[in-house]
Amino acid sequence: MDNKRDLLILGGGLVGMTLALAAAKKGFSSHVIDRADPAELTAEGFDGRASAISTASWNLFTNIGLAGALEEHACPIASIAVTDQMKPGRIDFQPEPHEGSLGRMFANRTLRLAFFEAARAEPLIAWHARTEIAARDRTEHGVFATSTGGERFEAALMVAAEGRNSPTRGEAGIKLAKWEYGHRAIVGGLTHERPHGNVAWEIFYPAGPFALLPMLDAEDGSHRSALVWTVDEKDAAGVLKLADRAFLAEVEKRMGNVFGAITGVGARASFPLGFHHTAKITDHRLALIGDAAHGIHPIAGQGLNLGLRDVGALVEVLEEGALLGLDPGDAQGLARYERWRGLDSFMVALATDGLTRLFGIPGPAASAVRRLGMSGVQRLPALKKWFMDEARGVSGDLPELLRG
Question: Which residue numbers delimit the FAD-binding domain (predicted)?
Answer without folding.
Answer: 6-319
